[in-house]
């Protein structure tokens, strides 16, 4: 396999690290390009080859991940349009970039897999939403899904849902980090040392998420299991509801989804 990465920022580095840690590719099978020296140093630290030349990475790769910010996609695709090998699969990771948009710039026959990963890929617990265009063969898609599963989980969804995947999967770690921080702050206010408060809050969130995934129970049912009649938890839930906790989260995610639709 020859895996090319155009861009070596946080998300690309997380993907590379996860793929290497799971043994899904060897360091010599990955080439990352970036104009920024600090970003190239990130790739070097992971043990992969780096270059300043996007065209070199594009011409070398069987699978090419374009890991740049949405506003740079047009310029990057124009730059690499005429140097890609036949049969290459182009993988995008940017919000708002549709497979049709990529086809328009690289040609009607291009194979495009559109993904929305998230940064927990750095610790092997990423979540990636995936769709592809009609040119991608099932075997090629399975190969990409295997790479994505290597640093977490991958979920294939219709392309019309990809903007929603930004808010519920790609951006959501930021909301969860804020939630953990807020819980830790409250525990600190109650006298707990901050390091212990952060560990306890983070483990509580990790364990709760694992219960949702492994039990198959609805989150509401699991919440009810914790809420004893007249107990401490239902008191906290009541306070959260009085302050519009769920509505606030939903409004924030809707704003995120709408922003994703306007990225390009």
UniProtKB/TrEMBL annotation:
The lineage of its organism: Bacteria, Bacillati, Bacillota, Clostridia, Lachnospirales. This is Pyrroline-5-carboxylate reductase. SUPFAM superfamilies: 6-phosphogluconate dehydrogenase C-terminal domain-like, NAD(P)-binding Rossmann-fold domains. The keyword Oxidoreductase applies. Keywords: Amino-acid biosynthesis, Cytoplasm, NADP, Oxidoreductase, Proline biosynthesis. GO terms for biological process: L-proline biosynthetic process. One of its GO terms (molecular function) is pyrroline-5-carboxylate reductase activity. Residues 2-95 form the Pyrroline-5-carboxylate reductase catalytic N-terminal domain. Pathway: Amino-acid biosynthesis; L-proline biosynthesis; L-proline from L-glutamate 5-semialdehyde: step 1/1. Pfam families: F420_oxidored, P5CR_dimer. It is found in: Cytoplasm. Catalyzes the reduction of 1-pyrroline-5-carboxylate (PCA) to L-proline. It catalyses: L-proline + NAD(+) = (S)-1-pyrroline-5-carboxylate + NADH + 2 H(+); L-proline + NADP(+) = (S)-1-pyrroline-5-carboxylate + NADPH + 2 H(+). It comes from the Bacteria. The gene is proC. It comes from Enterocloster asparagiformis.
